[in-house]
Amino acid sequence: MQGIKVDPYGIKIMLPKAQTHLLKINSLSSISANILKQEMLSLGGDVALARGVLTGKIKETDCLVMGNLSQLLRLSNKLNLQPFGLAKLADDLRSTLKNYQKENFLLKAGKYKLNLGNRTHIMGIINITPDSFSGDGLSNLDLNKIVEYAANLVKDGADIIDLGGESSRPGAKRVSLKEELRRVTPVIKALAHKINKPISIDTSKPEVAKIALDNGASIINDITGLKDPKMAKIVSHYKAGVVIMHKQGNPRSMQINPKYDSVIDDINVYLKLAIEKAKANGIGEKSIIIDPGIGFGKTLNHNLEILKRLKEFKSLGMPILIGTSRKAFIGKILNAKPDNRLFGSIAASINASANGANILRVHDVKATKDALKVSDRIKI
Fold first, then answer.
1. Cα 127 from Cα 134, distance rounded (Å)
2. Catalytic residue among 361, 369, 373, 377
3. Are 288 and 259 in contact (CB under 8 A)?
4. Which residues contact 338 (CB under 8 A, 6 or more apart)?
């Protein structure tokens, strides 16, 4: 529009008409669904409903709303005047559209502030474990070597360092609190004085999280999605950042025939509830990151569907972290072991970035950084 010299006021009016959306609304009463359809038809859009709604044979239906942004915003105004709970739906509709269009995310994590909207950020992985799935565990190295490794990740372009002392690979056994602290605490202390980047601690134990934050960490990467109530309180107290991840089951059993009614819907509901829980415990909205949990209780097709439809998680209004690096689904596609999954990992990461990921959690920082420089320039 600017290229053909459209009037700025005209652009403001017409741009919403050029942005089309499909919105799925779950479990709406047949009465509300019929009103919704009629209102959307009056605006030039439409709503797909279950066959028995119009005849009254069924009392509840999922809905697929089809229209452009201008129509949907007008729809929300019309629904405000309707009974049967449609005013609440209008609020949800406006909130979802606002979240979906949100591009600028300022992450607040302890003393750090990261602008996640200007480019895709990289979280470099350091596993202080002897049983990492990717074979990159550094538990056999002395402290100086581990610190040097982290410094090199930062030099290669890591914006965040993610440190873990307990493997979460499929089939992994739990590590005791004492052992996890023994592995990670000295490294966090040393890194906090060596690098000027946020340190993330990958843990589900509140005790580990607290000690890590006391010693210089500023982000908690919790694969259980704040399942333990104490974790949320600790994050809130320290004003730390938090990665809320979805997983189905536990590491020992999560890859044994995982099933979903609808993988995207189910993850969305899980993450929405976790976000509400985080806020209720005093965690600031700008401190929350969401992660749909690639490989955590998902089949190959589940993982591919998540990456393909990643933008749908933007409806939650939080920055998205994706970790595909060297994971098993890439190995299945390529028939390759973890140390031969570099090119597949980069392909998955760049696709994730293009589809809305704000942070990529990776092992191979330099290669990913170079690929992102090109990808981000294409997106501008």
1. 9
2. 361
3. no
4. 133, 134, 135, 326, 331
Token pair, residue 48, equals 């797909």
Catalytic, 12? Answer no
Query: Is the whole-model pTM more than 0.70?
Result: yes
Report pLDDT digits (tens) over 163-220.
998 887 766 678 899 999 999 999 999 999 999 999 999 999 999 999 999 999 999 9
Report the SS3 class of residue 325: coil
- 341 labelled catalytic: no
Residue 174 CB coordination number (10 Å): 14
- Tokens found for residue 268: 């969305």
Residue 67's SS3 state is strand
**Helix, strand, coil percent content, the chain, rounded in steps of 5:** 45, 15, 35
The region, left, alpha or beta by phi > 0 then psi within -120 to 50, assigned to residue 303 is alpha
Among residues 327, 332, 337, 369, which one is catalytic? 327
- For residue 223, the Cα-to-chain-centroid distance in whole angstroms is 12
**Strand duo 20-29 + 60-68: pairing:** antiparallel
Per-residue model confidence as pLDDT tens digits over 135-169: 555 666 788 999 999 999 999 999 999 999 888 77
At residue 12, the 3 state secondary structure works out as: helix
Report DSSP state, residue 186. H
Assign 68 to helix, strand or coil: strand
| CA distances from residue 174 to 117, 245, 286, 350 in whole angstroms, order as listed | 36, 18, 31, 32
For 99-125, what is each residue's pLDDT tens digit?
988 888 999 999 999 999 889 999 999
The CB-side HSE value for 78 (13 A sphere, CA atoms) comes to: 16
- The amino acid at residue 277 is K
* Beta carbons of 325 and 363 less than 8 angstroms apart: yes
What span, in angstroms and rounded, lies between the C-alpha atoms of 305 and 221? Answer: 23
The two three-digit tokens of residue 310, written as one number: 């990643």
- CA-nearest of 99, 165, 98 to 126 is 165
